[in-house]
Amino acid sequence: MRPMRFRVLGPVAVHEGPHPISLCGGKQAALLAVLLSRANTVLPRNTLIDALWAPEPPPSAADMLRWHVHKLRKALGEERLTTAPSGYALTAAPDEIDAQRFETTYAHARHLLAQGDPVRAGAALQDALSLWYGPAAYGDVDNPMVHTEATRLHELRLAACEQLAHADLATGQDTSAVARLRPLVAENPFQERFRAQLMLALCRSGRRAEALDVFHDGRRLLDEELGLRPCPELLRLQHSILIGETEQAAT
Length: 251
Description:
- With 251 residues, the protein is mostly helical.
- Helix content is 61%, strand content 7%.
- It is built from ten helices and six strands, in the order βββαβααββααααααα.
- It has helices at residues 25-37, 45-53, 61-76, 98-114, 118-129, 144-170, 174-187, 192-204, 208-226, 232-243, and strands at residues 5-7, 13-16, 19-20, 43-44, 81-83, 87-90.
- The strands form two sheets. It has a three-stranded antiparallel sheet, with no helix packed on it. Strands 4-6-5 form a three-stranded antiparallel sheet.
- Helix 4 packs parallel to helix 6.
- The chain is elongated, with a radius of gyration of 22 Å.
- The termini are far apart.
């Protein structure tokens, strides 16, 4: 079987060595994304038809699916895309799919953090996050099963970003933490954990006034958009900043 790299942590793509494999249009890319979301598992034809043509598949959907499978098999090789009585399955080793490599590396990083090794954990988290080059491609397919997988991966990515900021703070890399956290707060304004980490990193970088501005921006946003107050963690951190005890604040 020809070794390949399947990429779904961004627009779906396939590489054989350094060379990209051309996919014929959006439907073929979507078919590959669906098959990769359940790699090495037979997916029923109706599931694939719904994923590609919901909510109203055309009368010719079964024939069109066979054509797209034929073209995808031609691109990837006969052994990659197998036919079963009920449907089709794509064969891929875990290390050939970037999403699975991300999850494996992230799990290793979490273990390192639990063992009290934030330096090696930070390096592993950077390796895991470097695999992302856009929103998970599964999100381009209008199918609940695939959307669930895209959402799960997105949540893991946010968790990995939070753990990387934690590792930066634990090793005194406050300036690096600020650079990582500013765009995360902007993109996820209601994620109070990111906001707390940014406040702490700014304060430890000697930017106390900016840290308090981040708190007040979050408090105003919560009040205007949701009618809520900041969480206890943010309130405690604001108090610690005001009295100059951020070294004792949780990271």
